[in-house]
Amino acid sequence: MSEHAALLDVAREAVAKATEIVRSRPSFSVSAKGDRDLVTDVDTAVEDALREFLTAETPEIGVLGEERGRSGDDGGRWWALDPIDGTANFARGIPLCGISLALVDGEHSTVAAIALPYLGVTYTAARGEGAFANGERVGASTATELSDAMIAVGDFAIGRLAEEKNATRLRLLSDLGARAQKIRMLGTAAIDLAWVADGKLDAALILSNNPWDTMAGVLLVREAGGAVVDRDGSEHTVGSSSTIAVGAGLRNEIVDALDRAYGVVR
């Protein structure tokens, strides 16, 4: 078994454990951790359990989680974990949420697992091996016309500079809303990206790049034949400012729309 295959088995087992925790907690507490930003005790329970599991299974690999930060000596490789992506949905009983886990090596992810505990699907990928949903290979959209495209747009910004950032989002929504088939705001980057990989969405525009939110989905999209770029159309890396995932046939149109929203002239 190759190292990537072995590490994918670890990632798959980790998100399965997380799914069990999420589905076994019928009640939970919710608290604020920032401006209009929530955390539940299920988020922290999942992260603590997966940190313990990953540290036991791969002690040479560090962990960066949304709720507890970074731990371990990563040596250039680390697990990026979002214990529940879409916490606001989860807290309201909306089943659009997921557990996102990626192995990041240098600037890119090499192993990915995203479990959607209420939809019964686990997406997995290892670099060079394709993308899968419950073991079945998936592929990104082949659409070439924006009028045929269903596009997910990430949440509005909160906190510092939110007004300026949201003005850009509104320009983008106005532009794409006038030309795309449909616009969706699902409230979870993990599902946005997994569904681009699965061809359910033709593009996902996430104007931020927290590694725990995005790095698993980025690998899924690439392994499914899609493109993932930064806001300016350059190659997406862990250090990118935005995460733009798209079926390859719409890449240029989406980048052009972003340029207009940001007032960029090329």
In short:
The chain is α+β, with helices and mostly antiparallel strands and 266 residues long. It has 2 domains: 3-137, Fructose-1,6-Bisphosphatase, subunit A, domain 1 (Fructose-1,6-Bisphosphatase, Chain A, domain 1); 146-264, D-Maltodextrin-Binding Protein, domain 2 (3-Layer(aba) Sandwich).
Description:
By secondary structure, the chain is of the alpha+beta class. The protein has 2 domains: 135 residues, Fructose-1,6-Bisphosphatase, subunit A, domain 1 (Fructose-1,6-Bisphosphatase, Chain A, domain 1, 2-Layer Sandwich), CATH 3.30.540.10; 119 residues, 3-Layer(aba) Sandwich (D-Maltodextrin-Binding Protein, domain 2). It contains 7 helices and 15 strands. The strands form 3 sheets. It has an 8-stranded mixed β-sheet with strand order 4-3-5-6-7-8-9-10, sandwiched between helices. Helix 4 links the parallel strand 11 and strand 12. The protein is globular and about 50 Å long. The N and C termini lie far apart (47 Å).
Q: Would you identify the CATH architecture of the largest domain?
A: 2-Layer Sandwich
| Low-confidence segments | none
CATH class of the largest domain: Alpha Beta
* Strand ordering within the main sheet: 4-3-5-6-7-8-9-10
CATH superfamily of the largest domain: Fructose-1,6-Bisphosphatase, subunit A, domain 1
**Mean pLDDT across all amino acids:** 92
Count the DSSP helices: 7
Amount of helix? 25-40%
**What is the rounded Rg?**
18 Å
* Total E-strand runs: 15
Report the sheet-strand fraction. Answer: 25-35%
How does the helix and strand content classify structurally?
Answer: alpha+beta
CATH topology of the largest domain: Fructose-1,6-Bisphosphatase, Chain A, domain 1
Can you tell me the number of structural domains?
Answer: 2
